[in-house]
Amino acid sequence: MCRNIKTLFNFEPAASDEEIYAASLQFIRKLSGYNKPSKANEIPFNRAVVQVAAIARTLLDTMETNAEPRDRDVEAARAKARAAERFGTS
Amino acid sequence: MNTRDNPNPQRILVVDDHQDICAFMQAALEGAGYEVQTAAEGAQALALQRERPAELLITDIFMPGQEGFETISRFRAEFPQTRIIVMSAGNVPGMQHDFLSTAALLGVGTTLRKPFDADQLLDAVRRVLPPR
Known about the structure:
The structure holds two protein chains of two kinds. By secondary structure, chain A is an all-alpha fold. Helices cover about 60% and strands about 0% of the residues of chain A. Chain A has one domain (about 15-85). The longest helix of chain A is centred in the middle third of the chain and has 21 residues, at about 40-60. Chain A is flat. Chain B contains five helices and five strands; from the N terminus they run E-H-E-H-E-H-E-H-E-H. Chain B has a five-stranded parallel sheet with strand order 2-1-3-4-5, sandwiched between helices.
């Protein structure tokens, strides 16, 4: 599940709120063990997603680098190549 | 009626980290006669509220710094009379319902789904903040 969490720093254009939300949701799903929380756990679950997303947004906005911004298409191609090597798919 | 014509306008606090959204909402609400202050995140909103309380808080959920749910909880505890509207883009598949229902569990009865226009904004505001 956490394999779906991708690097979001130093992309051009910058990571969107939605991308950060999605990664935060995956992280909290993994930690909690629930894909969707019960009604009783809805507040802490969703609150945790939003809090992780807020911290991640702050992190991405404040980190610095001299490296060239990443290109989404290039990164996607690299990920596909890694998956092909790992799982023997083309 | 805008705020220049109203000597005692109702005060609204808008919280969103996107400046363009704050500017749009401020223009729409001030054009309808409300006094508006904006904040980029929850801690800043609380500081403004302590200085001069607003009758209505309109807050985004996902913001860097103090996010929306924390902000709602703190307003509920410290300013129980303040009415609250939550706005959310909800563009993550399967999450829109959950976030809005969580806002309801925290005592927020009115939500605005982004993007919304000025009429939708004013309709929501008038539902929770009847004219004096």
